[in-house]
Amino acid sequence: MFDFNGKNILVVGGTSGINLGIARAFARARGRVAVASRSQDKIDAALKLLGEDNPNAIPLGASFDVRDNEAVLAGITGLHQGLGSIDVLISGAAGNFPAPAAGMSANGFKSVMDIDLLGSFQVLKACYPLLSRPGVVLQISAPQAYVPMPMQAHVCAAKAGVDMLTRTLAMEWSPEGIRINSIVPGPIEGTEGFDRLAPSDALKARVAQSVPLGRNGQVTDIANCALFLASDYASYINGVVLPVDGGWSLGGASMAMTELGQLMAKQGGR
Ligand code: COA
Ligand code: NAP
C-alpha cells in the first residue's frame, strides 16, 4: 500500500522492538533504511533482516550513544554520506527501569532524561540540516508523557518533554517543509519496554483487559502508523501527539499504569 522507493529513512534506536519493526516496515515498502543504536551486534543483526526485507537497497548502520553529542554528530554525518538526504527520521531510542522517585539517584533520573529527551534533541538537531525539504520526523513517545505512573517519574518527565519538543519543532521547522509528529504506542507485546513494566503473562493479560479494543498492541500496529504518518496521505498532519493504543488512553491506561506501578512499588524496584 505504501511505497517509499527512492526514499531514505533513518531509525535511531532501530535495532530492536518497536523501532526495528518500524525500520523493517519501511524496508518492505522499498525504502532505503539506516539504523543506529549503541550495540554493534544488534546493528549487524538488524542490517541482516533489513537486507532481506529490501534486497534492492543495502541498509546502513551506525553505532553511537544518543547521550554523546559528538558521537551523534559523527555517526549521523557518516550515515548521511552513505545515504544522502534523510527523507524520514524516526527518533525512538529510550531507556527505562522501574524505580521509586524517593529511591532513585539523581544519576538514575538523569540517565533516562539524557537518553529520551536530551538524546532526542541531539538526534533531531544533528539531522536537521540533512533532512529533505519536504521531510518527515517521527518521535516515539510513551503514555507516561500524559499518564502519571508510580515508579516512572523519570520516564514521565522525559517523554512529556519529548512530546513538547515535537510540538515546538513543528512550529519552528514546518515552515521549511518538515512535518514532525509523535507516535505514542500503547502496551506492545513482545517488547523490552512492556516486559519491564508487566513482566508476566498474567500482568500482560490484565493490561489487555484495560484496553477498549480488548488486546495489547503488536509491533505492526505501530509500524503501520509510522508508514502512514510518513506518507503523503498524512501531508497535513503536523505537530500531533498520536496515541496508537486501541483506546487505552481514554481511561484504561491510567487505571492499569497505576496498578502496575503500585505492584512494582510493593516489590521495591530493582
Ligand atoms: N533502579 C534504580 N536505579 C537504576 C536502575 C534500577 N532498576 N537501573 C539503573 N539505575 C541507575 C543506576 O544505579 C545509575 O545510577 P548511579 O550511578 O547513581 O548508581 C544510573 O541509573 C545509570 O545506570 P547504568 O546502568 O550506568 O546506565 P546505562 O547507561 O548503562 O543504561 C539504562 C541505561 C539504565 C536506562 C538501561 O536500562 C538501558 O540501557 N536501557 C535500554 C533498553 C530499555 O530500557 N528499553 C526499554 C525502552 S522503553
Ligand atoms: P527496545 O527494544 O529496548 O528499543 C530501544 C532501542 O533504543 C534499541 O534499539 C536500543 O539499542 C536503543 N537505545 C537504547 N538506549 C540508547 C542510547 N543511549 N543510545 C542509542 N540507542 C539506544 O524497546 P521498545 O520497548 O521496543 O521501545 C521502543 C520505543 O517505544 C521507546 O521509545 C519506548 O519508550 C517506546 N514505547 C514502548 C512501549 C512498549 O510497549 N514497548 C510503549 C510505549 C512506548 P541499543 O541497546 O543497541 O542501544
Explain briefly what this protein structure is:
The chain contains nine helices and seven strands; from the N terminus they run E-H-E-H-E-H-E-H-E-H-E-H-H-H-E-H. It is α/β, with parallel strands linked by helices.
Structure characterization notes:
The chain contains 9 helices and 7 strands; from the N terminus they run E-H-E-H-E-H-E-H-E-H-E-H-H-H-E-H. The chain has 270 residues and is an alpha/beta fold. Strands 3-2-1-4-5-6-7 form a 7-stranded parallel beta sheet, with helices on both faces. The termini are far apart. It has helices at 17-28, 40-53, 69-83, 106-127, 153-173, 192-197, 201-209, 219-230, 252-267; strands at residues 8-12, 32-37, 60-63, 86-91, 131-140, 178-185, 241-244. The radius of gyration is 18 Å and the shape is globular. It has one domain (8-267): Rossmann fold. The protein binds coenzyme A and NADP nicotinamide-adenine-dinucleotide phosphate. Coenzyme A binds next to helix 4 and helix 6.
What are its keywords?
Rossmann fold; alpha/beta; 9 helices; 270 residues; seven-stranded parallel sheet; 7 strands; binds NADP nicotinamide-adenine-dinucleotide phosphate
